[in-house]
Design a protein that fits this description.
By secondary structure, this protein is α/β, with parallel strands linked by helices. The chain folds into 2 domains: 193 residues, Glycogen Phosphorylase B (Rossmann fold); 178 residues, Glycogen Phosphorylase B (Rossmann fold, 3-Layer(aba) Sandwich). It is 42% helix and 16% strand. One of its GO terms (biological process) is bacillithiol biosynthetic process.
Length: 377
């Protein structure tokens, strides 16, 4: 199959999922065309089956905001015609499904019928999409897609509750490329670089937005380090980072916290990690938690959104109500205080992560693609 993938090319979960999906599809012999405004961060190397087409948005004084959707639609039309692309897979309802629908209509006028699969990731539905300004366009885009998927049952439920959706929504969960994430036993994890031998290493990875509840991460760690020697690794960047640094200073723990900023070496960081913290207000799926679990790292998280579908209570970690930092810290200590308990949770985390291996999830997308293409035959 010749497939165009439209996504945000950033460190966010949707871009990572879309890129990894495309690369694995290419390895299976499909021809993949990434169409976006810059090269996706995980798209390090191109192969004969992987192509990248940049969407250029000309700047005109007439426009206060440059019309990206218009440029994207036009680019999609050109690439479909040039490369005989058979299917569009757009990640995020807005602006990508909206632009994809416009491209479909332009192509239809030229006698080309092409199916579009839209994958909902979360923010496009629960935060941005539900805004009154965008709600009609999001509803329209989802209903005009040939097939729609969501990354969790929780997100599907939210979508059906918030919008007047007539389309079926199929749940296809996010995935992990397990072979890439499992630590190579021949490469030792040099924990001594980050912590003393008796210190536990705790990690948080996110885009440091308010929804991630960064102060809660700090408070949980503060309570943990009062009971056992520990270090906290904060990976990522965003609007809440500076406040987090000040909070660490106020609590007198700045010397125990390392702020990394954005990193392309997540696997190396997780290799050193004993416990992952994700106390988010909500997560449509919880990809960061799954990446941690694939590296044998148990998770302490909130119980909101799709997190209970990934982090299994008392097995791969623990779930608590949003904001209950005291319980989260107590649960963390249950895991961290005993070496044997920690070892068991680490094994459990990997066992659950295996269910989300890309090799198990990819056939679901391939079957959906074939169904979409058959629709227009």
């Amino acid at each position: 199959m010749k497939i165009a993938i439209v996504c945000y090319p950033t460190f966010g979960g949707s871009g990572v999922v879309a890129t990894e999906l495309g690369l694995e599809l290419a390895r299976r012999g499909h021809e993949i065309h990434f169409i976006t405004y810059s090269q996706p961060v995980r798209l390090a190397l191109l192969s004969p089956n992987v192509h990248y087409h940049e969407v250029n948005v000309p700047e005109y004084p007439l426009f206060h905001y440059q019309p990206y959707e218009l440029a994207l639609s036009s680019k999609l039309v050109d690439m479909v015609k040039l490369y005989k692309i058979e299917l569009l897979h757009v990640h995020y309802a807005i602006p990508h499904a909206y632009a994809g629908y416009m491209a479909k209509q332009m192509l239809k006028d030229e006698g080309i019928n092409i199916p579009m699969v839209t994958t909902l990731h979360g923010t496009d539905i629960t935060l941005v999409g539900n805004h009154p300004f965008y709600k009609p366009a999001v509803t329209f885009s989802i209903n005009k897609s040939d097939f729609v998927t969501s990354v969790s049952q929780s997100l599907k439920d939210d979508t059906l509750k918030l919008f007047n959706i007539k389309n079926e929504i199929e749940v296809i969960p996010n995935f992990i490329e397990l072979e890439k994430n499992i630590n190579d036993p021949s490469i030792p994890c040099q924990r001594s670089v980050m912590a003393k031998e008796n210190e536990r290493i705790i990690t948080h990875i996110s885009n440091f937005r308010k929804v991630k509840r960064i102060p809660d991460v700090i408070k949980i760690f503060y309570n943990i380090q009062k009971e056992i020697p520990a270090k906290l690794m904060m990976v990522g960047d965003g609007p809440e980072k500076e406040k987090a640094e000040y909070l660490c200073q106020e609590l007198g723990i700045l010397d125990k916290v390392i702020f990394f900023g954005n990193s392309n070496e997540i696997d190396k960081i997780l290799c050193l990690t004993d416990l992952f913290l994700l106390p988010s207000e909500t997560e449509s799926f919880g990809l960061a938690a799954l990446e941690a679990m694939a590296c044998k790292v148990p998770v302490i998280s909130s119980n909101s959104g799709g997190l209970p579908e990934v982090n299994f209570e008392g097995i791969s970690g623990y779930l608590s109500d949003v904001g209950d930092t005291d319980e989260m810290a107590q649960n963390a200590l249950k895991i961290l205080k005993d070496d044997l308990v920690l070892k068991q949770f680490k094994e459990n985390a990997l066992s659950i992560a295996k269910k989300f291996d890309i090799k198990n999830i990819l056939p679901l997308y391939e079957a959906l693609y074939q169904k979409a293409i058959n629709k227009y035959l």
